[in-house]
């Protein structure tokens, strides 16, 4: 589908393979999430609109390109999405950062919102929603809908690993959202974890389990 992009870059695939390993510790895990996030940011920003601007080099005046309109907005879904923020900011340092806090109810697997703070001009920006894992798709879909309710019309979703069930949920709920996926896995297990996946991304990022 034209709005679903599964990354096939060798560097991304190699780093995701290392990320999955049970023996990969928190320090290396954080570094890998950041590195993969940067590579995916490069791909996800490929079609941003450009405009001409006149500049002066040390030699002469010329016409250069710059990203048109407002700069970007980055919205990680707490807490695991935080691991991808610094990588995005290294490439787009003028981006504003918002946060949406959601957790998955262990019984119903439905998302529950507990925090939200967004840039005041969020509706004028291209927004990149970040979450390393797309499992059931409930949290991602809820976060995207929350942004739409705030007037955002240009939304991109980035995740490192996705289950087919989550991709289908977001695609069905938000067919207008561009999705960038590092690796598309086999399925969800009975506990809502991605198989083969990499376990709980938040716990592995922050060493809490």
From TrEMBL:
GO terms for biological process: UMP salvage; uracil salvage. Uracil binds at residues 194, 199-201. Keywords: Allosteric enzyme, Glycosyltransferase, GTP-binding, Magnesium, Nucleotide-binding, Transferase. Pfam families: UPRTase. Pathway: Pyrimidine metabolism; UMP biosynthesis via salvage pathway; UMP from uracil: step 1/1. One of its GO terms (cellular component) is cytoplasm. Allosterically activated by GTP. GO terms for molecular function: GTP binding; magnesium ion binding; uracil phosphoribosyltransferase activity. Its EC number is 2.4.2.9. It comes from the Bacteria. Residues 6-208 form the Phosphoribosyltransferase domain. It is an enzyme of class 2 (transferase). Catalyzes the conversion of uracil and 5-phospho-alpha-D-ribose 1-diphosphate (PRPP) to UMP and diphosphate. HAMAP family: Upp_B. This is Uracil phosphoribosyltransferase. It comes from Anaerotalea alkaliphila. The lineage of its organism: Bacteria, Bacillati, Bacillota, Clostridia, Eubacteriales. The gene is upp.
């Amino acid at each position: 589908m034209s709005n679903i992009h599964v990354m096939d870059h060798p560097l991304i695939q190699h780093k995701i393979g290392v990320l999955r390993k049970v023996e990969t510790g928190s320090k290396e895990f954080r570094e890998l999430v950041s590195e993969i996030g940067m590579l995916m940011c490069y791909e996800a920003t490929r079609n941003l609109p450009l405009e001409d601007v006149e500049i002066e080099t040390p030699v002469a005046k010329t016409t250069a390109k710059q990203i048109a309109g407002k700069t970007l907005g980055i919205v990680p879904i707490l807490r695991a999405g935080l691991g991808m923020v610094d990588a995005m900011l290294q490439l787009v340092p003028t981006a504003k950062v918002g946060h949406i806090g959601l957790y998955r109810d262990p019984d119903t697997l439905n998302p529950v919102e507990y925090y939200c703070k967004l840039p005041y001009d969020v509706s004028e920006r291209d927004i990149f929603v970040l979450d390393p894992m797309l499992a059931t798709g409930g949290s991602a879909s809820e976060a995207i809908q929350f942004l739409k309710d705030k007037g955002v019309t240009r939304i991109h979703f980035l995740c490192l690993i996705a289950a087919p069930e989550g991709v289908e949920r977001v695609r069905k709920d938000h067919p207008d959202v561009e999705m960038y996926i590092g690796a598309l896995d086999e399925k969800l297990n009975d506990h809502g974890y991605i198989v083969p996946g990499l376990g709980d991304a938040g716990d592995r990022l922050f060493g809490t389990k």
